[in-house]
Design brief:
Length: 383
Amino acid sequence: MSKLKISVSAIFMLILLSMFGALASAEEVKLPSNVGTVDNFGDNNTHRTHGNFQNNTNSCANCHSTHNGEDEYLLMKSGEYELCMSCHDGTMGFYNVKVASEAGVMGSHEESASMHNVDSDLSVNSAPGALNNKSTAVFECSSCHNPHGSANDRLLNETVAGKQYGNNYNVTIVGYAETITKLNQVPIGTKAIKLNLVEDPAYAAINSATGLSGLKIYKSNGIYNKPADGLTQAQVYDSKLNYSEFCASCHDDYLKNRENGPRADGVHYTHTTNSTKQGRSCVACHYAHGTDITTLRDTAGNTIADLQTKKGWTEAQAKAYMKDVSKKGSSLKRFTNMAVCWACHQSTHQIANTPGTTNYPNTTDASKYFVPGGDYSGKNLIK
């Protein structure tokens, strides 16, 4: 069937979300509902596409067609990528993966672009560093996210490539030495990854109208690096370690402590990725969705936009400076070229417990440096 076919339910969904888009400018914010105006608790109903459905839900019809599905899963589009992007390309959903965020950017055609390619026939076990990962499933959005819901933030899967990765840990840090012990595996349905989510100011009108228990649109500041929002230090450690375990479910040969010998292939060494210390988790160096020249930074945390604003550079100057020249591509990096190394291994930023810095080793709190949403003010190295 044609990919352009639009069902009655899809038209209803488009009308529904266009109503949401008008909320910000409305004098009185009124929330649309799935079917009725009252939910299971007698409160004003709010629309939820990916879970927490009410008993009177119509949300299933947003993605599935009972009798006229385009594939064996009765999806309303011809494939998973087409279905997800029918909302998450900015036309309908609140979360537009084509716009830069803490997850990076998806589907960019800018210079130095690289991404997790969910619009191809790549198999899951084709991931760089795959060793024990033997999954021949096609790599898609659902390889990382559960569209029907998850205990984890951002619908991150609780099992990846057939592996249940979530654990509780005991972490002991003395000077530079860190000892990590797995205590127990957390059961399915228990949050293993908690992200630093804050209400998105771009949707303040909607967030204020929904009250304490209604629909909220959040902006992610990435993983927590220190206790906040009721999280204990142990919970922060668990979340950081589980995020790297999440990535290592596919890239399993990269989850190795270099101090304890080479990777599982017996030949190559790698950065330790299962560490709680600053700059040692996968997402300290890489974006989850992808990157391009507009999201790449230099070691001072500057983007192309920053260089134009702070330094008065032209766009052409800034792009020539920021361009990633690696033959294999930018590899979803946060920092351009090998600035990803220099961002930590230098004396000017004083990253705690990092070889090459003048304060190594110590336990100074350097959590604000080079973390998602971190404060880079006063750290500009370009004179």
